[in-house]
Amino acid sequence: MISSFSREISDVTNDITSRKYDVAIIGGGITGLSSALYAVKAGASVILLEKDRIGCGASGKSGGQLVTGVAPDIRKVIHTYDLEIAQRLWEYSLLAVNVVRGIVERHKIDCCLEDGHLLVAHTTREAEQLAGQMRILQENFGDKGWDWVSGNQLQIAAGSDVFAGGVLDLRGGRLDPAAYVEGLAAAAKCAGARIQEFCPALAVDSDIGAVETSVGTIAAENIILAVDGSLPKFVPEVRQLMTCVWTAQMVISNAHSHDSQIMSPMYAVADTRSITTYYRSLSDDGLLFGHATSVSKQHNFRLLRKLGHHLHSILPQWSTSTSYRVETGQIPTSWNEVPFIRRGQGRLVYAGGYSGQGIAWATLAGRILASEVIEGSDDFTFFNRIPLKVIHSRLMQELCVRRNHGAAVFQDYLRRLQLAN
Prior knowledge:
By secondary structure, the protein is an alpha/beta fold. It has twelve helices and 17 strands. The chain has helices at 30-41, 74-80, 83-106, 124-141, 151-158, 177-191, 231-234, 300-314, 358-375, 378-385, 393-402, 406-420, and strands at residues 20-26, 46-49, 65-66, 114-121, 147-149, 165-174, 194-196, 201-205, 210-213, 216-225, 242-252, 268-271, 277-281, 287-292, 324-334, 340-343, 348-352. The radius of gyration is 21 Å and the shape is globular. It starts with 19 loop residues before the first strand and ends with a helix.
């Protein structure tokens, strides 16, 4: 849900350079706040730096979908890696959802968490492909935590009659991401983490453990980068591993609709297409409807036109509302659509590339990063060893031009590629 925070959670003093911290965290989204919470609970002294407000980026403005699994078709994961890695990634995705639920329950975070996520297929062919995925999960992973829905049952669950089939997973769900982020921040601060808003990290020296800020240099034994889409600023080689998908989402009020009894989805809904459409009901009986478009930047009117087209075709009963607000942004994604959790130079670790499934994966990534810098983590070792897809030079050149990075970025990429070889 697109909203702002209701209370101050940042430390107001500026004497942040007067001591050395066990862990310095850059980024005040879900990954950073989860890292802060778990690190401070393990006994570490923690400072978190956020360049703006806590949760001002993708974390606080996401679609609010709590999703099991990884972004691509599980068959693609098996093909890209192997059955064992695919199974472990699936198990980690289930763990990630449980970690979110545990945090919400333990810290009594009022974020409107409700059970049920519905993955839907538009056509008969897509429904058959989705059913094939589910058979693989059942036969190879022993997973039976889902139900196939179709017909009238699917229409009621999705609030729409345009889908050919769907999979309901009650382990997933929906929540208010801004409230969840605020609750995470409050829990981390209550546990002893220091949170400094409006304090951007200007540079990082991972060899000596130093973060340069506008108010001075912060010394730390370990540095966690939790900035996802801004990772290339600090770790240039990440530019080869990820991109950002442009998205637009609309929050629609039911109060000014022509039909006050308008049909709403029972669960959080997302489709199976690579350019995803997603939506969910809101606690005030409104609707959040979003659509991811492409890796290239588009003018707002084109984004909104696509958004309106998809809304009208899927939920025409909502397209007559005259009370709504719209926001556009970017979703960081890895090229193989699997999150990366890795070690950089020296004392630096980082995570990102959640590919639109950031609530669960970012929460788990924060826990894994904290465990790694405190005592070492087998989970971190597993993710750090996963081979990541590197974009080919020709496609990199095309995207650099399309995303207005220009020739300089492309030449820098080629130089680093030559050094690596």
